[in-house]
Structure formats: C-alpha cells, structure tokens
Amino acid sequence: MTEPLPGREQRPIPPRGERARGAWRGAPFGIEMVRDVLQDAVDKHRAICAFDFSAFTPPPPVMLLLGNPLGMLLATPFVLGMLLATPFVRPFRWSRPQWTYVIPVVPIFYAWDALVSGLRLYSVRELQEIVNGLPANEYVWEIRREHVPRSITYLLGRPDG
Q: Where are the domains of the chain?
C-alpha cells in the first residue's frame, strides 16, 4: 500500500528507519479502515500503536439512581416555567429569547456529540476481533484497557523478533 489511506489525512506507515506509527484517538474510522491501517503496518513490518483516551465509562449506579432522576424531578418545573414565561417578560428584548433558548442549545449539542462518540468507540473485544481477522502474520499484538486516572484503551502491534 503506497498511496495514502482514505479518510482524515491518514497516511501509510512510514518506511523502515522512521519511528513507529501512532494512530487514532477516538477513532471514528470504520472497521475496514482500522483493518487497512493495521494491515499496512504488517505489510511494511512496522510497529503500530493506537490509543483511545475517550473510553466511555458510565457513571456509578448510585448517581444514576439518586443523582440524575432526583435532580431532574426537582428542576423540571422550574425549567419549564422559565421556558414558558420568557416570551411574556416585559419589556420584551430579542436578546432575552436568544439567551434563554439559543445559547443553552450549544452545551446540549456538545453533550450529544460526546455521547454518540463514546458509543462508537472500539472495545478491547472488537479490536481483538479486527486483529484476529488479519491474515496470518508474525506480530505480537497487545490490546488492553487500563484505568489510570481515566480509562484508556490501547492497541500495540510489533513484529515478533
């Protein structure tokens, strides 16, 4: 594979003598692209490492049971009241609906993006399946998830010997 891989400025593995290739973080790549990147490393007999610092970790069950529902239950009447009353506050200014309705949408978009990105990350099992699907090779693959202040999933591949 000599031409760049398709996608987000993805390049093939550098020739021998250059450093190991670091790959994706929060990889939105499809399985085929991940497989192509790994196969390119194997073809060129180069080490590869991929790190994902964005591993999705659900909140503790206590927070799910007590924190969120209780907070939502208490806050909902106030939030709904504010949303319904804002257009009737006098004197009317166009900046008031902007600050009430438009600006709060931005954090909602960021939260949605984080949630969706977290859901499409590869698990250790999925990465192992991708590596197992590569043609037979003499590589040592290490795929693990570590919990150092935050969760990190990593894949290391290097030629055996």
A: 21-55+122-147, 76-119
